[in-house]
Amino acid sequence: MKIEDEIKSTIPLDISKKITLNILYTQNVITDNFNEVLKPYDISGEQYNVLRILRGQKGNPANMCLIQERMLARTSNTTRLVDKLLLKNFVTRNVCPENRRKIEVQITQKGLDVLKELDPKVIAHDQLFSKKLNTEELEQLNYLLEKYRN
Amino acid sequence: MKIEDEIKSTIPLDISKKITLNILYTQNVITDNFNEVLKPYDISGEQYNVLRILRGQKGNPANMCLIQERMLARTSNTTRLVDKLLLKNFVTRNVCPENRRKIEVQITQKGLDVLKELDPKVIAHDQLFSKKLNTEELEQLNYLLEKYRN
DNA sequence: AACAAACACTTGTATATACAAATATAAAAA
DNA sequence: TTTTTATATTTGTATATACAAGTGTTTGTT
Hints:
Oligomer: homodimer
Helix content of chain A: 55-70%
Low-confidence stretches of chain A: none
Radius of gyration of chain A: 19 Å
Distance between the termini of chain A: 28 Å
Number of strands of chain A: 2
Order of helices and strands of chain A: HHHHHEEHH
Strand order of the largest sheet of chain A: 1-2
């Protein structure tokens, strides 16, 4: 469906406007779908993101700053996000002995297990959309998005 | 900047994953920028959206259902969103005499004035990004996003 | 007419997010 | 050494959002 139809626009839209709306709307569709994937596991999209970052650390602890800078969306509540994960025993949290201002956050085995179970579903989610385009189109879309943003 | 660099990914990403992240991240960049545009006017992005929809009604009142279905993001708080606009005298709200279940929401002159002042800034915002692509690339990006989503 | 179902909207609750201020620690400067 | 500045994280407050339940109104069925 064209973006004008999705938002039931009464007037024809400029191409610049169409693209802005299209990106915003497509992101909503992706996020809604992804939340459905996560729902049975009782973690939010942002919580998933933190776990993913922690796994990427391959055993090394991550401090709050590091988590924050690797997240997609700038979030001002890394503390509270980690709190939630701690309650579910998906992470551990300790004061860094070398620099007591820092907090060392690590993913637990339970956290790793949840991610492992989610992995195939996350891949399927990504592909649910991308399978509609061929390889060349996918590369082109990726290229255009980066050019558009920078 | 490539999306892998933006999120400081330690591992190479599959094209499907790159596109998902790219769309999410690009949306964040657009939204952050748009919020900056709106900041001096003390309205949120969602509130702007409602005003835009109401203006599109060209004098006809809109009920809550209509507003909801024309919004980009499905939101469960159209009531509270309209409440906020009412406090600022950007809209009026009345019970529909034909069907007392419905609420008629209309934009006020003050609301129209704010939108008019915002119009050039919103256009500039859209073009800030789209000017990095030529016409052909813009059409292609729009086409690919729609194909990707459907 | 009485009852049930559908509709349009509102409200409560829990959680999320944005922004600014506060706290604690470490490093640098006087 | 004391003071200042920078760094890392937490907390408070206001607002936003998601989801489910609640209220009032209209429509349809018996």
